[in-house]
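so ive been stuck on this for like two days lol. basically i have the seq below and the ligand is zinc ion, smiles is in there too. i just want the complex predicted, nothing fancy, no docking runs or whatever. if the output looks off dont worry ill sanity check it later, just need somthing to start from for the group meeting slides
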Amino acid sequence: MPSTTYPAIKHYWFGKAYTDLKIVIKDSHQRNVDTASDYWSKITDSNWFLKIFYGTTAASVVVGGTFVWLIIVPIHASIVGVIALAIMASFLVLDAAERIYLLIKGWTTICRSCGERIALPEFQCPKCMIWHSQLRPSSYGVWTHRCKCGHQLSCSFIGPRHQLKARCPHDHAIIDADIEVRSTTSVIALVGPPNSGKTCFQVAAFKGLRDSLAKANGFSFAFSNRDSEAFIEDELKTIICSGSTRKTVEYRPSAVSAVLEKPGHGKHQVLLFDAAGEVYQASDRLHQHNQFKHLTGTVLLLDPFSLNDIRHRHMHRLKAAGLDHRVATTEIIDILDRFLFSLQRHFGVPSDRVIASPLAIAVTKLDLLDLGKELPVTVNQDLTQHELQASSQRIRDKLIDWGAMGFVAQVERRFSNVAYFAIAPLKSSDGSSRAELNTVGVSSVLNWILIADKPKLF
Ligand SMILES: Nc1nc2c(ncn2[C@@H]2O[C@H](COP(=O)(O)OP(=O)(O)OP(=O)(O)O)[C@@H](O)[C@H]2O)c(=O)[nH]1
Ligand SMILES: [Mg+2]
Ligand SMILES: [Zn+2]
Ligand SMILES: [Zn+2]
């Protein structure tokens, strides 16, 4: 609960009403004493008749006054108590209603910067700029809280609270409450070693979502914030200019996020977390990646050129084409094992637990050296359940052919909802600086992973 330095003023019936009650009690008692002493002081200079009169009057003021005082004070206190109780009941009901409403709607807020779940953001008073950490129905107010500067702030989901400037209580990253607090959320992690194609997947995923997937399902598309939009626009320009994405250097970059909206359906946010692949090369680098506690899906990027079999067969051609620096070198089984170990070590996922959240294995870069002839890429973003199963089985079998038996076995041992995809988001088979993004396969991954967690979304 807020400390004594909390920047709002307590509701009258929880704060000032008690001070007023104390003053009334003290004041009426003092009046009794003053009136009785007044009569008593007159006794000395009076005859015996007046002495008896003033004496009994003083005594009756003390007795009668105290008697009335004893009746009035509890009545006053109970009126204050009953009103306070009624107000307390209304704020508890409103607060509970808000929580139930959030549960029914399935709205969750995950900070795109620190990955933590936000139960209640901090909101800023637009007048004095001070932050309020408990802007919810409480003893500070049922519908509004009054900031110490005098400004009234809406404190419930019914009012315009979401229009206030908001921030994450964990790391103070600014959030857009209108979008982030009032939407369902998909939290998807892109996992894979350096150079495995995560960033390329991310750029193609947002392009595909914006240009086709959202529209095909009747949703409008918008980036949730300027940073996400700028990042994707910059990467798209880089791909056009240089034929490649840029290396991700940050170990804990913010998620790139977009919001899908449809009348009668509300808002749905998609957060993709893409860190530098180096974080998956050691088991101690994921400890502050709080998003792993709230994942609704994982995409594991599998660069086939990191598999020993393909590597040995094609390395000389890759080198000849100057493409050897564009492929991953860490074995995918090592990445998976370290990832699972990190989940166990940092997020308490037991080593024998079967993970239920969907895992997409995206075998990527299939445009390179015509690898697509061995494993054709997915060309339809809306696969039927039957088509998906057949294609997933075919890709799984091809991975086993390519010597990834241990990897497939580990995936199937630890994950209960797995699908395999064959993609080539970036088409630049000659290694030149010309490249084009192919979003179809990536969109099929996104389509599956979004509805695997929220079947009613599309
Ligand atoms: N030809 C081709 N190249 C790709 C494809 N996907 C990624 N690449 C290239 O592979 C290299 C690595 O891709 P990124 O997406 O940056 O890899 P990453 O996993 O984000 O790597 P880090 O940022 O180091 O973790 C880049 O040179 C990309 O251009 C693809 O589908 N086809
Ligand atoms: Mg990257
Ligand atoms: Zn945060
Ligand atoms: Zn203020």
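The first strand starts at residue 8 and ends at 9. Residues 111, 113-114, 116, 168, 170-171, 173 surround zinc ion (ligand 3) (CB under 6 Å).
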